[in-house]
Write a structure and sequence with these properties.
elongated; two-stranded antiparallel ribbon; 16 helices; four-stranded antiparallel β-sheet; 2 domains; Multidrug efflux transporter AcrB transmembrane fold; alpha+beta
C-alpha cells in the first residue's frame, strides 16, 4: 500500500507542485524553439551510434575494470561461506530481569541446567495406539495406555504380596507409636483394593494441569528433559512405526527447520525475482546490452554483500533477510537511473548523469540515516537490520556509480 500510494503521488500529484517550464534550445540559425525533455521510453529506444574512446580513457577504464573484477572474485569466493542463523534465540533481546524470570520458570517446570526439553509426539487412529507408540522404557508416560497400566499393576501386586505381613502389622505399629488403631485404615484399604486400568478421562485433573504427558485427540506428546549433548541423537532415534506417526524435536531444531525452509524459499524467490527484473529491463530498454548494463550492478553488489557478511561474521536471520529484498529493489532503481542518465547524455550531449547521481546519493543517505542508525541498537534483530543496511547500501551505491558507466563506455560508446 505504501508503494502504491507513493507511485500515485509522484506520478499524479507531484507534477502539479513542480509546475511547467519549457526548455529553450538555441538553434544554429538563431531561432529559439521549445523542446520537451525526452522521456525514458523514447530515450531507451534510440539507435546509439558508436564512438571510440581515447587511449587514456581506455587505460583508465581497464585499470578500474581489473580492480573491480579482482575484488568481485575475492568477495565471490567468500560469499560461498555466508550462513543463515537458524537459532532464533540469537535475535531475541532479554533484560537481566527477564533472564532471571525465565530461569525461575525453567526451574518450576523441572528443567535442569545443561538439559534440553525433547518433545516426543505419537499420532495414531485412536488414543490407545498413540499411547503405546509414545511409551519408551527410559522415558515412561505418567498417563499410560491400558496395556501399560495392566503391566504396572501386575508389578505392583507382586510387591504387595511380599509386603502383606508388614501391611497387616501396620495397625499394631501405629498403636505402639500413639496413633489410633484405625488411623491408617483408608490407606490399607487402598493398597488392598483391586485396581483396574483406567481410560485417559480418569486422569483429567493431571492432563488439565499439564502434569506429565499431554493428550490431544489421538495425539500424545511426552516432554522429557535430556542432556543437551544428547538431545539431537535422542530425538532422531524416535522414528515412525507401522501404522503410527512418531517424531521428536527440540525447540532449537524446530526453529532451525523453519529458518532453513525460509532460507531455501528465499533463494528460490531471489532467482525468480532476478529473472523477472531482467526481463522487465529488457522489455523497457528494448536492447539486450542496456538491460545487462542496468542489471549487472545488482549481481555484483550481491556478491559483495555476501562476501562482506562472511568476512565480518554477519549472518542472515528471519528479520534482516526481509530487508535484503528492499536493498535489491533500491539497487534496481539506482541502476535504472544511472543507465537512463547515460542514454540521455549520449543522445542529447547534455550532462544529466550528475543529477541522477545526486538523487541516488540523497536516497541512499536517507536509507543510511533511517535504517543504518539501527546498528547502535542493543536489540540483536534491530542491530542486524542496521548492519545489513550499511553493508548492502554501501555496496549498491558504490557499484551503481562505477559499473554502468564503465560498461556503457565499452559496450555502447
Amino acid at each position: 500500500m505504501m508503494l502504491v500510494s507513493t507511485i500515485l503521488f509522484v506520478v499524479v500529484f507531484l507534477p502539479h507542485f513542480v509546475g511547467k517550464k519549457d526548455i529553450k534550445l538555441a538553434q544554429k540559425d538563431g531561432v529559439e524553439r521549445s523542446e520537451p525533455v525526452a522521456s525514458s521510453a523514447v530515450s531507451s529506444q534510440i539507435n546509439l551510434p558508436a564512438s571510440a574512446l581515447t587511449p587514456r580513457q581506455r587505460r583508465q577504464s581497464a585499470a578500474v575494470a581489473v580492480v573491480l573484477v579482482a575484488i568481485t572474485l575475492v568477495f565471490g569466493y567468500f560469499s560461498l561461506g555466508t550462513q543463515f542463523d537458524t537459532d532464533l534465540r540469537n535475535i531475541n533481546y532479554l533484560t537481566p530481569q527477564q533472564q532471571t524470570l525465565l530461569a525461575q520458570m525453567a526451574q518450576m517446570r523441572g528443567e535442569e541446567k545443561g538439559t534440553t526439553p525433547v518433545y516426543f509426539v505419537a499420532e495414531a487412529n485412536n488414543v490407545q495406539l498413540a499411547l503405546q507408540a509414545a511409551e519408551q522404557s527410559q522415558y515412561p508416560l505418567l498417563v499410560a495406555s491400558v496395556a501399560e497400566q495392566q503391566r504396572r499393576l501386575q508389578q505392583w501386586y507382586s510387591i504387595l504380596n511380599h509386603r502383606a505381613l508388614q501391611l497387616d502389622s501396620l495397625s499394631v505399629l501405629a498403636a505402639s507409636e500413639g496413633f489410633a488403631p484405625d488411623a491408617f485404615k483408608p490407606f490399607q484399604e487402598l493398597l488392598k483394593a483391586k485396581l483396574t486400568p483406567q481410560l485417559p478421562a480418569h486422569f483429567a485433573p493431571l492432563l488439565q494441569a499439564s502434569i506429565g504427558n499431554r493428550i490431544m485427540g489421538n495425539t500424545v506428546v511426552n516432554i522429557v528433559n535430556v542432556p543437551s549433548s544428547q538431545a539431537d541423537s535422542v530425538a532422531s532415534a524416535f522414528k515412525p512405526m507401522e501404522g503410527v506417526e512418531r517424531w521428536a524435536f527440540t525447540l532449537p531444531s524446530l526453529n532451525a527447520t523453519i529458518a532453513n525452509s525460509l532460507s531455501q524459499h528465499f533463494n528460490y524467490i531471489g532467482w525468480v525475482c532476478g529473472a523477472i527484473v531482467f526481463v522487465f529491463l529488457w522489455l523497457s530498454f528494448r536492447k539486450f546490452k542496456l538491460a545487462v548494463i542496468a542489471f549487472m550492478p545488482m549481481v555484483v553488489s550481491w556478491l559483495w554483500i555476501l562476501g562482506t557478511m562472511h568476512l565480518l561474521d554477519m549472518r542472515f536471520n528471519l528479520v534482516n533477510i526481509i530487508l535484503a529484498t528492499f536493498i535489491f529493489g533500491q539497487g534496481d532503481d539506482y541502476s535504472i537511473f544511472v543507465t537512463e542518465g547515460l542514454i540521455y547524455e549520449r543522445k542529447h550531449g547534455k550532462p544529466m548523469l550528475a543529477a541522477y547521481r545526486k538523487g541516488i546519493l540523497l536516497s541512499a543517505a536517507i536509507m543510511f540515516i533511517g535504517m543504518g542508525s539501527l546498528v547502535v541498537a542493543r536489540h540483536p534483530a534491530l542491530h542486524s537490520l542496521g548492519a545489513i543496511t550499511i553493508v548492502g547500501m554501501g555496496a549498491v551505491v558504490a557499484l551503481t556509480y562505477v559499473v554502468p558507466p564503465l560498461l556503457f563506455k565499452w559496450w555502447v560508446k
